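Quick log. Single chain, no ligands specified.
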Amino acid sequence: MLKFILRRFGSSFLVLLGASLLLFVLTINSGDPLKDLRESNADNREYLIEQRIDFMGLDQPWYARYWDWLTGVGKCVIGQCDLGTNRSGQQVIDLLGLAAASTLRLVVLATVIAMVFGVLIGILTAIRQYSGIDYVVTFLTFMFFSLPVFWAAVLLKEYLAIGFNDWLASPDPGFSWPTIIVVGLVLGLALQAILAGNARRRLFTFLGAFAFTCVALPYMDWLNFARYPQLGPVVITLVGVAAAVGATVLGAGLKNRRVLYAGLTTAVLGLVAYYATYGLLWDPNWLIILILAVVAIGVAIAIGRLMGGYSKGAATLVSVFTAVVMGGLIIVEHLFRSWPSYLEIVGRPIATIGSETPNFAGTFWEDFLDKGTQLLLPTILLALISLASYSRYTRASMLEVSQQDYIRTARAKGLNERQVILKHAFRNSLIPITTIMAFDFAGLIGGAVITEQVFGWKGMGELFRTGLEQVDPAPVMAFFLVTGTAAVLFNLLADILYAVLDPRIRV
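-> predicted structure:
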């Protein structure tokens, strides 16, 4: 395996070297970097031309310019990266740091959301093959995959930003009864299709979801939830307990009481942590949140190991999952409590352009909300587009694996369907999905150019587009350095994960 990894590193280095040379040559020959200055009527035009020639090294042959860039990249090995300057004299390494931070904040979240929900949807549609929900999900995923990015972005701006902001700014934001009925019908139809069962069970599921909607939405209106949202300890506890029970059902089955008790114990301790950390989280910083997260995960692992008995592994996973859910709910509660003050600062919370409000001054949670609302629309757009790939590949892989002999053998041995799907079929279907995950992350960094331009993000896409328009190779090569290296490394990581998922690949 070590020899394989070293060979891959060597071949990947040669690929990156050749691609960088080709891209550099194409960029510098795509136009005239001095065109705007040649047409200028400024009195200091000649000085500006000489200054740009000096910044971009235009007085050197192309191979000398490329060698200077390659030498600067080589210094990254000793932590002294020198990616040159752009045509204005700014250090590209500084521009790259800001752009990469902005894009990664967007791409990582979108990839994780698409990955989790895409895999879950793929498993569901594979289990419910040729059912109504399979056809509906197939139609929706192909529709999302086919949407032009710029057009979908405009729709999101119109309905999820401008429309929501107008609704929130109205004197009495609330849900009308036609809206409540439509939401109840859609939710009821979706849940009965997902949970399936006989006609009676489907009917009760539909009626329960519809009734819940007709009670919950008016109650939220009565609380003025849109402007003063809150969860409270009761809701946090109920959701935490539901997470523990649900994770136990999927991971070990409700008959395994040790695993269930470990999850429920974690949920109870999460409620204790809600009160214990309330003052600490009033206006924290990222270091405090990181420390509390590490402590929470550590306590959850200890609970799983101590209470799991012979099912320590399953109990630990359930306990950690419950701890993550409870921690997320506590953070959401603090965000909710900061929402009214945030509305007083910005007025219209869902932004349509930019990655953060300029010169924004607020508490930690208000700043969190500001960056989160700016992140909302582009994240939804990128996640919806990637969701189709994950769900279709997962469905196809699950259907292929389910026809194998070892799956029929597992069922013949008497294993329940949960064990057959999650422990046998799902793990063996992950190999093609791993390939998609590796390339999708690297592809989203490079493919977010249009999304960033539509939403006004100053990220990697903006850096690349500006470099091309100005015939400036330094920003373009910086973009290539990040995206090309990410593609190679994630491809290598996918190959290593193959060996982890399938022991046969190791030999």
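The mean pLDDT is 86.
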